[in-house]
Specification:
Structural class: alpha/beta
Helix content: 40-55%
CATH topology of the largest domain: Beta-carbonic Anhydrase, Chain A
Strand order of the largest sheet: 2-1-3-4-5
Largest sheet: 5 strands, mixed
Distance between the termini: 58 Å
Bound molecules: zinc ion
Order of helices and strands: HHEHEHEHHHHHHEEH
CATH architecture of the largest domain: 3-Layer(aba) Sandwich
Strand content: 5-15%
CATH superfamily of the largest domain: Carbonic anhydrase
Shape: globular
CATH class of the largest domain: Alpha Beta
Length: 205
């Protein structure tokens, strides 16, 4: 019920103010989050909660299955604001095991609009079909695909003109890929961080 939600909000706000007088007045003047989080819309993976961060500490963009479409104006606007206005230097693409969006992308059933949205994951599944076949079961295959989707997301964020321009200007932004386990509440680093100099190194190889 919406009434319960409003009651809980009033309790939370009173508690926070009692704990730290002037908390909201201070936070209202400005935000200076250290992280930009791009994650899945899944209700079980709220950025602030799983990363142990308070309001004001993480700028967030979420969509179904944390897909990075290079022409998604919503994501690009948030990314540009994060980098240029909030001067955030740590960007996180976070996927999660047991992702319903990733599962939908592996099924033959029609899912309406979601099939358009999830198309990059279907494409990844085709590209990595041989690797995915090595996994023991369907759940492991989907979790592997969720990891691949994060790595691909990091690459796509890194290739946006926003990041390319920032790196060219000598700004030390790093883009990290993490995956969250619904079963244990832990975030894991997928070791696919891209930072300044990455593309020069690749070009030199
Ligand atoms: Zn998900």
């Amino acid at each position: 019920m919406i009434g319960d939600l409003l009651d809980r909000n009033a309790q939370w706000s009173d508690h926070k103010n009692a704990e730290e007088p002037g908390y909201f007045a201070r936070l209202a003047t400005r935000q200076s989050p250290e992280f930009f989080w791009i994650g899945c819309s899944d209700s079980r993976v709220p950025a602030n909660v799983v990363a142990g961060l308070d309001p004001g500490e993480v700028f967030v963009h979420r969509n179904v299955a944390n897909v990075i479409h290079s022409s998604d104006m919503n994501m690009l606007s948030a990314l540009e604001f994060a980098v240029e206005a909030l001067t955030i230097r740590e960007i996180i693409v976070c996927g999660h095991y047991g992702c319903g969006g990733v599962k939908a992308a592996t099924e033959d059933l029609p899912h309406g609009l979601a099939d358009h949205w999830l198309e990059p994951i279907r494409r990844l599944a085709r590209s990595y079909a041989v690797d995915l076949a090595q996994e023991d079961n369907e759940e492991a295959r989907r979790d592997k695909l969720a990891e691949l989707n994060v790595v691909e997301g990091v690459r796509r964020v890194s290739e946006t003109p926003i990041l390319q321009r920032a790196w060219k200007d000598g700004i030390g932004i790093r883009v990290h890929g993490l995956i969250y386990g619904l079963k244990d509440g832990r975030l894991r680093d997928l070791d696919c961080t891209v930072g300044p100099g990455h593309f020069q190194k690749e070009a030199a190889q």
